[in-house]
Structures are given as C-alpha cells and as structure tokens.
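To assess whether ligand presence alters the predicted conformation, the chain was also submitted together with XIL. Input:
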Amino acid sequence: MQRHSLILAPAFLGALCLTGRPSPGLKDYYKDYFPVGVAVSVRNITGPDTTLILQQFNSLTPENAMKMGPIHPEEGRYNWKDADAIVDFATAHGLRIRGHNLCWHEQTPSWLFKDAQGNDVSKEVLLQRLKDHITTVVNRYKGRIYAWDVVNEAVADNAGPDSTRILRNSPWYRICGDEFIAKAFEYAHAADPQAQLFYNDYNTERPEKRQRIYRLLKQLVDAGVPITGVGIQGHWSIFEPSPDDLRATIDLFSGLGLKVQITELDISVYPWEKERRVLRPGESDAYTPRLQQQQADQYKKVFSVFREYKGRITGLTFWNISDKHTWLDDYPVRGRKNYPLLFDTAGQPKKAYWEVVNF
Ligand code: XIL
C-alpha cells in the first residue's frame, strides 16, 4: 500500500499545526479584508522560504526582477528568466501577482535615456522606448498579473523653487515634462485592458508630499487617464506615520474614486533618513525588547486603520519575508541590521505578528 503521507510537500507539512489542521496565516486572518502579499526574489521561491510564503501569503510582487534595468538590459533585449520564474511559481500555487514596475527613475538600464553618441534622446524617442517596453512586458504577463505599479515615485520629496511643479527632476521629467505619466498608463491599459493600474509612492502620509501626490492623481483622474488606484508603499518606522496622518491620506486618495493598496510595507526600527551613509563606530543595531514593543505597537496601530478601511484598501504587500533578509539591512545605512518585518531571523512570528492577527 502506498504511504501518501510520506510524499507530502514540505510546504504543506510546514503549514500543519499540532492538531493536524493547517495553521492559519496572514492571508487567512485577513481573508475578509484584502490579499496579503510579499515581495520576493527568485532565491526566495526556490529555497526554504517557500514554506513561509505559502503558509502566510496569497500574493507576490517581484522585488526587482521586473524593473526596467533587470528585465530590459539592452534596447530590444529582454531578460525574462527571473520574472518568468516568479510568475510561474505564483501561478502554480494560485497566488495573485502585482507587477512592479513599468516606469521609475531608479534601476533603469544605461541605454534608456541616451542615443549612440551619449546625448539625451528626444522626448519622442523616449516615449517610443517607454511604449515598446510597457507593451512588451505587460503583454507577456497579460491575464496573469492582475495589477501593475505603472509609475513609481515620480513626485518630488520637497517643494522646489517652482511651487507649481509636482514631479521630481528625473531624466523622465527633464526629457518629457509631465506627459510621460499619462502616457505610461495609456500604454499599459492598451496592452492589458483588464489589468488594474497603480501610481505608487512613499512618504504619502507626510502632509506636503501627500498634497503633491493628490494634485497629480487628480489631474490624471480629471483627464480620464486609465488609473485604478494608488499604492501607498508603507516604508514606515516605529515613529511614523500617526494613525491620523494615515487616515488623512487614505481619505484624500480614495475620495478621488481610486482604490488604495499598501504595496511595500515594512516598519523600520530606526528613524527615516534620506541620505545614504555607513554605520558609525559605536552605533548600535541591536533589536532591544523596547524596540520590539514599539514596533508591535506601531504594527497594531496601522493594521487597525487598515481594517477601518475595509473595501477601500484592496491589497497589502510586505517588502520581504522575514528579518533574515531585508533591503533595509543596507539602506539607507550600509551594514546596519534592521528588523522591520513580522517574522524574525529564524522565520518565527514576532510580537508584532500577534498584534496584527489578534483582532
Ligand atoms: C528595492 C529593493 O528591495 C532592493 O533590493 C533594491 O536594491 C532597491 O530597490 N521603493 C520601491 C522598491 O518601489 O522597488 C524598492 O525596492 C524599495 C523602495
């Protein structure tokens, strides 16, 4: 007689608690609210992390694999390997996929803004390149990627000398002016009319930047640009945002009729810093009981706001799986360990996890 129990996949065994029933994960606690996702690399979906992923999450975002630099390294040449592997894994396991991202000023390939002589290309050429890129990438995953971050982080952090200017002074803006934003959405919509299309940004709860993002979104909505929603990245810390600032942002954006998703959640145990630097001698990066408690409190607060907005928040994604590896280990401070997620370095649920699921 065949012993079926011996051939159960490790991921399934990992999801069994002592009673023999699968133990619930974040996705189960929040099933009446929104899908709960996580940003992944290929390494995550081919190694031991798969157990935690499948137990806890029902949506994936490729952390880097679909960005323009990695996926389109030379004009006309695409590198599909990693992106395909993540999409195949998600499809095989019935997970949703958010595509990230189609137009950003970082992680761009070196050829993008330049001609053969090394000069900036014209606006017409750059828009044509953007169109080719978006059409090819969106089309490849049509029907499998349900939502795209179409434009990422285009709004300026600080008000410039010209208070009417909303956008950051990136090569996109320098070469195309405002127009690239609407165009990016139009190209994506033409390639996959069913896909939900998002504008995605950080520091969305800070009043000044919130207002600039709102002005951009309103212009897009008023002009009939095919935008579905706005991604609040959620790169937060134990110090911010306050529940009221978070509510103000969700109210303002959703008041435009846009869906809201939390797209890159992590809660750093350090204050926000913009400039990159190295760890200073003597500066501690220990995860003290006090920090653990402050973090659990902050997670509890923001999730309680998320639940208030049931129906308006349609998705939530964590930016990395566990404290074993987070992009914040090297950003903005090189060599400083951070502990921003719900699972510890051994993949075990932290105090913050229990605050998030006990409601
Ligand atoms: C980060 C990745 O996590 C890192 O691995 C990479 O080196 C840099 O980019 N906002 C975004 C994400 O929209 O794409 C960024 O991801 C984090 C900030």
